[in-house]
What does this fold into?
Amino acid sequence: MASMYSMWMPLPLVFNEAMDSEFIQAGTIFGFAYLIMLIITMTLQTGHIVYIVKHNEENLISDKHGEYMMATLSNPFEGLANVFKSVWALFLAISFWDIGEVVMAILMALFSLLLIYYLFIMLDTSLVKRVKLLSKVKPNPFIINIETLIFFVILTSYLTFIM
It folds into this structure.
């Protein structure tokens, strides 16, 4: 997974160069931060999984401890990264609107609406005392992965076929 996100690293820069909008520069920072954070967390998770598989032949590390470590390595960090992706999508929407690309602006605005979902997930995993409203929103890996795939397919398709 980390190598997949590494392949998408040039996207924020390419959009920064291709679009003539003042808002895209701030969006580029959030796009880079999002991708760097995901590369780091995916690398840490991979290292953790490999370590558990290689060094746990005698089951000294329990499944509960392994799950604890994965939650520590991923939940708050990935939550913040997804918040950054939504902010990046918001800046992309504003930039597309500035240059007259209405369809792309609407698509990116839809992705930016997920900011609320990701904020709820991030706050729920980060707060010590649970808030009832936040605990009602559960992260769904299937939805998050499909949303991320569609987000990047739309961006790369725009660069490939429209620009």
In short: The two ends are 27 Å apart (CA to CA). The CA atoms of residues 27 and 91 lie 5 Å apart. The mean pLDDT is 90. Helices lie at 2-7, 10-18, 24-55, 63-98, 102-112, 114-126, 132-135, 141-162.
